[in-house]
Hints:
Number of helices: 1
Amino acid sequence: MNIYFNESAAGANVVEILSDKNVVLENDSLNFTCQTIGNSLYNFTLYKDGNLFEASSENITANYVEFVIENITQSDIGTYSCEVSSRNGSYSSRNITITLGAIPLVTLSPQSKNVSEFQQLVLQCNGSGNPSPSFTWFKDDVEIDNLTYSITSSMDGSSILNGTASGNSAGNYYCELWNQFSRVNSSSASVIIYTLPYFTFKPLNKTIKIGDSVSFECNASSIPLPNINWYRNGNLLNSSSYNVTSGLGYSLLTINNVENGHNGSYRCEAYNSFDSALRKDANTSLIVLAPPGQIPEIKIIASSKSFDIAWAPPVFLGNLFVSNYTIKISQLTNQNYTSPNCNGSLQSGECIVNKTMATIMDLHPALKYYVRIVASNAVGSSIPKESSAYTDEAAPGKIAIISAMVLSATGINISWGQPLPLNGIVRYRLQRTLANESNWQLIFDGNETREFNDMGLHPYTVYSYRVMAYNLKYGLNGSESESVNETTKQSAPSAPPQEVKVSTTNSTSLNVVWRSPPDGNKNGIITEYLIRYKSVSEASYKNVSVEGNIFSVDLVSLQIFTNYTITVAARTQVGLGPDSPSITRRTDEDVPSIVMDVSVTVINSTSINITWGTPLKLNGYVGYKLERTLANESQWELIFDSTTRGFTDTGLHPYT
């Protein structure tokens, strides 16, 4: 359509097109207004999509015209502009795009939900329309504001309601979609909120004596009503071990005959059956008053007569203070425990202390003792803790029994009993001396045997013995035993008689004297002396014996002027000792026997030679005396005295 006006002097240099709406519904009407500045003759033309468009006009003035399009159809949708022309030229307005509108339409209604308290509640509503619809949310017909929930709507026709669920979030939700053409509501969504349980009655802390009964009550509420579990020290309780009576929203835990194992922290847990994450705990505790537990360890430092004992308190105190510790000892395992003497005892005649240490006194050295310690509190006593230790060693006691038994002439067996008391591991030292002497000699040292054969002794000698025990660990000496004496058996003397002397008595006898063998060589009682003798010409000895208390003898009826070899030996009841060194002695001389074989030979008228033989028995060193006399006369004259056996007598009278 062209509309002309007179052109003003200013000209139509500004053209504007206006529309009463940019979006229209089908069958609706649309108004465009074109206007310019000036009062010249103008021509107004309406264009659609660059093409001339015919429309009716209304309200025409010199610089203003209104175009009207009735009964809009799809073909009327497009881009419009207005052109103003005059003799001075043409001017176009800006473009206006007209779209076909639509009323809002719900394409997705919010869905009903069951939501746990404190979880996110998210509802979505989708729709279409042109222009794109706006959204308004309602809960129970009350508009929801952005302070309660986060509402996010987009131009693509979607709206999301988002918030943290609480107990007040339960209700019916819907959304309203609207644009300039209409409003429409979505279907309603039901939201049910399952709440976190809360306790209407919490279990109370309990302190109970062992063996008694105890109950814990726990009540809770939630939507829906909660279930209730019981825990001890973080572990779910087994109803077979505990008496649990439960229903929705309440539970009663009963423990009969309470034991130490029931002591601890208890927890009542209420949880929503719809969502197990919805849990609430109520903590309580059960303190069981019980006897203390066993002492974990005993340490003992031993001396020879005492124990210094220390121990740690029980790990489990029975939930009370340990009031005291009782100590007992025994030398037999689990038998006959008695109260020792200890320092700091709280009660006379007992060993009861309130510290974790004590000194036990008046013990015996080197003995094994069993120690038992019991901890006590106001409820009772612990299981005994046992340990054992040996007291340290000490000097042994005196040996009361020692005996000696002769074995032979050179040996004695000595045996002895143990010292009383032993006081540890002992060894023995055996000493010996001659009777009535004090010069003791160590003959045995360092063995655990209690017997010794003392050999190499002197026969028939009295020996004294004593024994002493000593501690092997420390070398501590015990007391010496009483001495015991024993005499070795007799033996043949080991030495001959002493100072043997032989003297000549006469021509047919010798006197022998001697002294006994040395005391150390007698080896017994000398019962006799044996004197043996023989002449040099004899092959064997002759024997003469005398009693042991006689120390001389005369050998008689000997040969005259004869050398004899003499020995003396001593005898005991066991045997004969060695001979003394031989001594040779000769009997005295005696008158020789008659001279035999006398012969006289005349040499001449004045000389006679006389010869003779030896006497049958010389009886010594002989010389010869020759006497002469005249025949028939008795007056003998010594004419020769010499050892030769011949003589020539001269100067005689002839024929006399």
